[in-house]
Amino acid sequence: MGTYRETYDRSIADPEGFWLEQAARVDWIRKPQRALDDANPPFYRWFPDATLNTCFNALDRHVVRGAGDRAALVYDSPVTGSRRTYTYAELLGEVAAFAGVLHTLGVAKGDRVVIYLPMIPEAVIAMLACARIGAVHSVVFGGFAPQELAVRIDDARPTVLVTASCGIEPTRTVEYKPFVDRALELAEHAPAAVVVKQRPQLAASMVDGRDIDWDVAMRAGRTDPAAVVEVAATDPLYVLYTSGTTGRPKGIVRDNGGHAVAMAWSLPHVYGCDAGDVWWAASDVGWVVGHSYIVYAPLICGATTVLYEGKPVGTPDAGAFWRVVADHRVKALFTAPTAVRAIKKEDPEGLLVREHDLSCLETLFLAGERLDPDTYHWATDRLGVPVVDNWWQTETGWPIAANLRGLEAMPIKPGSPSVAVPGYDVTVLDTDGTPVPPGTEGAICLRLPLPPGTLPTLWGDDDRYVASYLSTHEGHYLSGDGGYVDEDGYLFVMGRTDDVINVAGHRLSTGSLEAVIAQHPAVAECAVIGVADTLKGQLPRGLVVLKAGAEVDPDRLREELVGMVRSQIGAVASFRDVEVVGGLPKTRSGKILRRTMREIADGKDVAVPSTIEDPQVLDDIRILLRRDGSAS
Ligand code: COA
Ligand code: AMP
């Protein structure tokens, strides 16, 4: 494969040749003759003349080639005290059976299926079953409230919804089914059927004529499994909603062909794992890390993937990750820095690390938020393996910047996810769109076309795709992150430049939180900003201005607003901090200076904008944010 530099340069100089060659990693039904359709910029399509089936690549082909007995999926669930290993042949059997169920329920190629499940094997089975019959899955993270689920249902318009009776958090059992029932009351669209996995921990009540028991359906499905359906490489495999800057989530579309190639290329080259290796991405199937690196990449490559239903701490202790690594002989672990910070908080000396035989572990990969140098050093010192940062987004589906362990391991610089990954033409631009010199901060952008596996558009909304990502700097994708490249070509990602915040590795829109808070009868206006938090990276903080004459007890108001966010967005928002302020800083035209507040909260020196309406209001906010910032 050659060194990093050679590979990278070739991928940029000759993307067609490079990716056509990599396409050999995938089994096609009709092989691609061309790599890129660039006839309609800024819309690009990869492998426009090819057909395949993603599920065949993830399962059948390994069985066909004699690896049916190899472990495909290891389910490890400390919260239920259960474990199960599925071989490739067993997983294929389950997936084909559930694909048969979906087929019987009327799901056809191109139809959508919403999956709202905890971290149980049924989540993986349902995703792959959709892929098998050419249906488009949309997995919704379990920490979202009914309202958020309803918005996604109305956008995706699924034929079937798949859920479970409950999820299990360390301190409580989360009832999923009532959330689904409520979401379907709120949504305008009604799926034809709801398939429910009844878990032994809690039985959900069923709606006659609509709800179907997973286990009962599977008995029929096993007698009538579905065969693979041929799809175009450019057909959608899934839609995954992510937070944008407004309250309305963006449906990131992933295609079949480009995605399969990107998955097959990235696991060995970026993460140094391949067929036969045991790989563990400790994320959730509701996030992009879960889609790419719990499900698709490891299975497409023929590796063994671990599905962990538990937390880094509390299930039962801060040694849980090390126990899983040792028990399943995990070669590489991928998680978010916040998980390491949670472990470090409970076991600062790393005593629990020493209780397990971690000789199998070669690398710890971290992504999802900025890897702070403290966390980097702690993990490196305690584990004695390379700790490798990688930067990417739901939109791209796989790393944009990384230290490519399987291609050429490079020196690690703490605070940097290292260098641009082959396929990504990374550039840092100033506000005029001019590339900035090394060491200067600007907007991190990617020159078009983006490589295979990245978003071709937003679900049902080409205009929003262009407006959100492609219209600021012509010919470039705007990542929404700011940062710089140093003299050695290492990228430093400094944080979002928009109203997206990152709470415990979960991406949230401050706009959607503001929309909920603004509904309170006593609130005249509000702003939500992300403030630094030592555990979760960032936490949302609400600043509210009361309506004239409104008399409310601040504690009661706080309680009500926290409750509203929890019930409308979900527990995942971790929203607890609300402050009543005299006013919000605004421009003379009435625009709230969110960016200025964000920069103050980040500890930056911010000049008073010349267009400000009342500088005193900004001074008051500055005092408030600085006071609390220095206290935390
Ligand atoms: N279903 C239902 N509720 C969920 C949920 C799920 N799948 N996941 C989280 N929640 C709930 C939690 O129970 C918690 O509720 P609470 O307010 O009643 O306690 C709330 O959402 C916030 O959860 P979380 O952000 O996970 O915080 P936490 O305090 O429970 O745990 C960490 C903190 C750091 C241990 C945890 O955030 C973690 O493991 N993070 C890893 C992040 C990650 O995997 N990111 C994916 C990108 S790689
Ligand atoms: P998501 O789409 O949920 O994966 O979130 C993507 C966002 O998380 C990025 O735009 C960044 O702001 C942030 N992020 C992810 N990985 C990193 C990283 N390694 N370093 C810094 N920020 C990161």
Automatic annotation (TrEMBL):
Keywords: Ligase. Pfam families: ACAS_N, AMP-binding, AMP-binding_C. One of its GO terms (cellular component) is intracellular organelle lumen. The keyword RNA-binding does not apply. It comes from the Bacteria. It is an enzyme of class 6 (ligase). SUPFAM superfamilies: Acetyl-CoA synthetase-like. The keyword Glycoprotein does not apply. InterPro entries: ACAS_N (IPR032387), AMP-bd_C (IPR025110), AMP-bd_C_sf (IPR045851), AMP-binding_CS (IPR020845), AMP-dep_synth/lig_dom (IPR000873), ANL_N_sf (IPR042099). Residues 4-58 form the Acetyl-coenzyme A synthetase N-terminal domain. Its EC number is 6.2.1.1. Residues 63-448 form the AMP-dependent synthetase/ligase domain. One of its GO terms (molecular function) is propionate-CoA ligase activity. Residues 513-591 form the AMP-binding enzyme C-terminal domain. Belongs to the ATP-dependent AMP-binding enzyme family. This is Acetyl-CoA synthetase. It comes from uncultured Nocardioides sp.
